[in-house]
Amino acid sequence: MKLRKLAAIAFLFVTNSVSAQTLDELKNDGQNTENVTTYGMGYSLQRYSSLIQINKSTVKRLVPVWSLSLNNDLGEQAQPLIYNSVMYVTNVKWTVAVDVATGRQI
After folding, report:
1. Torsion on CA atoms 18, 88, 85, 46, rounded to nearest 10
2. In what order do the strands lie in the sheet with 81-83?
3. In whole angstroms, what is the distance from residue 102 CA to residue 82 CA?
4. Residue 86's beta-bridge partner residues?
5. Per residue, what are the HEC states of 47-106?
6. Which of 39, 57, 59, 85 is 20 to 30 A from 18 (CA-CA)?
7. Residue 87: strand pairing partners
């Protein structure tokens, strides 16, 4: 009996620490500049971001801060998704989670 209680507590701890986007976050994608949870930044597929820091006059100052090679001859074939500072990149071989701040594969 004691082992069952301990197992139940451990299960609750593990399941509560998992983070996934909510239905509201998916519906409102494109309005939240922190996360990109759907392809096309929203179900309307406009690929539009309301960020104002990058515009026609500032885009020339952008520089890469890190790069990551997935060693795939076919290249990446989909838009990355971002949730809670983790970028998810997919190709025909893998799905990779990347820390957006460092570029380190998780």
Report:
1. -120
2. 81-83, 86-90, 95-99
3. 14
4. 83, 99
5. CCCCCCCCCCCCHHHCCCCCCCCCCCCCCCCCCCEEECCEEEEECCCCEEEEECCCCCEC
6. 39
7. 82, 98
Residue 90, helix vs strand vs coil: strand
Spans of all domains in the chain: 19-99
pTM exceeds cut of 0.85: no
Q: Radius of gyration of the chain from Cα atoms?
A: 18
Residue whose pair of structure tokens reads 């570029």 in the numeric block? 103
Each residue's pLDDT tens digit in the chain (106 positions)?
665 655 555 555 554 455 677 877 777 776 777 788 878 877 777 777 777 888 889 999 999 999 988 877 777 778 888 899 999 998 888 889 999 999 999 9
> Which stretches of 18-85 are assigned E, i.e. beta strand?
81-83
E strands, 1-106, are 81-83, 86-90, 95-99
Local structure of 93: helix, strand or coil: coil
